[in-house]
Amino acid sequence: MRSIRHKTLFAAAFVFAAGFAASAAAVPAKCAPCRQIYDDCMAGPNPSYEVCARQYNECVPPSCPLMPLPWDP
Asked: What distance in Å separates the CA atoms of residue 10 and residue 47, rounded to the nearest whole number?
């Protein structure tokens, strides 16, 4: 029973990761310049996801997906 549960969990994680990678790789052309800004920001000397995601979200046109930001109560 334990090995079946382990295999099912592994398969589910693999499918999730493959779907996430496919959606991240499929950036529409109109969103690509903003995605490059985000990638360059994250490759910098002191990357901060929140700062880079805000730059991306401010750049993208309305038809592009926004990056989630940390919830701040």
From this structure: 31
CA distance 42 to 27: 17
* d(C-alpha 39, C-alpha 23), whole Å: 16
DSSP annotation of 47: -
CA separation for the pair 31, 68 (Å, rounded): 16
- CA separation for the pair 38, 32 (Å, rounded): 10
pLDDT tens across 18-37, in order? Answer: 454 455 556 789 999 999 99
29: nearest Cα among 61, 68, 66: 61
